[in-house]
Design goal:
This protein is α/β, with parallel strands linked by helices and about 425 residues long. It has four domains: about 50 residues; about 110 residues, Immunoglobulin-like (Sandwich); about 190 residues, MTH777-like (Rossmann fold, 3-Layer(aba) Sandwich); about 40 residues, no CATH class. The chain has twelve helices and 19 strands. The chain is elongated, with a radius of gyration of 32 Å. This is DUF58 domain-containing protein. Pfam families: DUF58.
């Protein structure tokens, strides 16, 4: 709690001190009484306001904050509702006369004061306002700042109420057309969801990440002590790994993540298990996250988008390339036969091109190669040619262009 006199309080206290001193010097009892009364008024107001601190004591106020929706996509609005309630009749005294101000990160407020609607009821006050999510990430909201002054306006106190909340912001995404047969492989007809039973549904194999748990053969699994699945290879959808080469420039970073997220959701909507493979949040090493399945229900899309919130640009270009090389080695070393690898890349150096070349040995590999500046166009074309020689399908994209155009160009790169 912060307690301080208002300008009126300072003036009254100064006048009281002056009157008290003059009264003592001149022996004027009335002036002494007036000066003493003025000082007592300021001190008494401070004590009274301090005793009614809304954030402390047995009768403190409670604060509940709701954000709708949360998470929210970048560029969209979210409505915040803050309910300040008196926990008992005695706390109603602390609720009366309070003024409220909310704190929010610049990424939510745009650096402007938040304009709120305040609705008062006998035992609670509801503050409602709207924020604009400017950028992907996790941004703080609150705590609530409350101010109160005494009836004479000589002392003002300010305090914080409630805990700090967090608003999660997903990247902006664009609905993309369903993946075509050429992207996921005509032999399996997985793009249109064909699930033709195999001729020998009784043959078994070891469980692999991305397999449908409904195809687990529990009797054989119990006998062998390891999960076994029926080897109907065409019964499921090809798993998809999304590989991200994160650029250092903020504008290119957010656009690249939006492109990757949109592509991932398009594949998920097509029935494919999807995972992200990219640099870890602390920049230490790449990591593969588990697959998200469309059969997980409404939470599947949220699970995919949640994995993009904490992605950060590498500190240096060398670090970014090292993470990409490590991620490529991980994809090549794991059992990814028949997997689809979608990549959003920047212009690559020789080590990264060599590492990515092996990914296409046992996977269907597709890449959108970004040219952030005109000076990078030649290097981006060199990267595309190297990837195509290794068996990738690749096309050049420009940061900031429509995501749908990039997707259609990538699908057309096989022609």
């Amino acid at each position: 709690m912060r307690l301080r006199p208002t300008p009126r309080g300072w003036a009254l206290a100064a006048a009281g001190v002056v009157a008290l001193q003059i009264g003592v010097v001149l022996g004027a009892v009335d002036l002494v009484r007036i000066g003493t009364l003025a000082l007592l008024l300021v001190v008494g107001a401070a004590v009274a306001v301090g005793l009614l601190d809304p954030g402390r004591g047995k009768h403190r106020l409670s604060v509940q904050r709701r954000t709708t929706p949360n998470p929210v996509h970048a560029g969209e609005e979210a409505q915040i509702e803050v309910v300040i309630a008196a926990t008992d009749p005695a706390a109603r005294v602390r609720l009366a006369g309070l003024k409220f101000a909310e704190q929010a990160a610049t990424e939510l407020s745009g650096g402007r004061p938040l304009r709120a609607r305040v609705a008062r009821a006998p035992r609670q006050v509801t503050v409602t306002y709207t924020v604009q999510a400017a950028r992907r990430g996790r941004w703080p909201l609150g705590p609530l700042v409350v101010t109160r002054s005494d009836p004479f306006g000589v002392v003002r106190t300010s305090a914080t109420l409630g805990e700090q909340a967090e608003v999660s912001v997903w990247p902006a995404v664009v609905p993309l057309p369903s993946p075509s047969d050429v992207l996921v492989g005509e032999p399996d007809r997985v793009a249109i969801g064909a699930r033709t039973p195999s001729t020998d549904d009784a043959s078994l194999r070891d469980y692999r990440e991305g397999d449908d748990l409904r195809r687990v053969h529990w009797t054989s699994s119990a006998r062998r002590g390891a999960l076994m699945v029926r080897s109907d290879e065409r019964a499921g959808m090809r798993p998809v790994s999304m590989l991200l080469d994160l650029p250092a420039r903020a504008a290119s970073l957010e656009w690249s993540i939006s492109l990757a997220a949109s592509m991932s959701l398009a594949m998920l909507d097509g029935g494919h298990p999807v995972r992200f493979v990219s640099g870890s949040p602390d920049g230490a090493r790449p990591y593969p996250l588990g697959y998200v399945h469309d059969r997980s229900g409404p939470g599947a899309r949220s699970a995919v988008l949640d994995r993009t919130i904490d992605l950060e640009a590498p500190r240096t270009a060398a670090q970014g390339e090292a993470e990409l090389v490590s991620a490529a080695h991980l994809l090549h070393s794991t059992d990814a036969g028949g997997e689809i690898v979608l990549a959003v890349l920047g212009p690559l150096g020789a080590p990264a091109r060599a590492a990515l070349a092996h990914v296409a040995d046992n996977a269907l590999a597709w890449a959108a190669v970004r040219a952030d500046t005109p000076a990078q166009e030649a290097q981006a074309e060199h990267t595309i040619k190297a990837l195509r020689r290794a068996g990738w399908r690749a096309c050049r994209v420009t940061a900031g262009e429509p995501i749908v155009s990039c997707w259609l160009r990538l699908l057309g790169s096989a022609q």
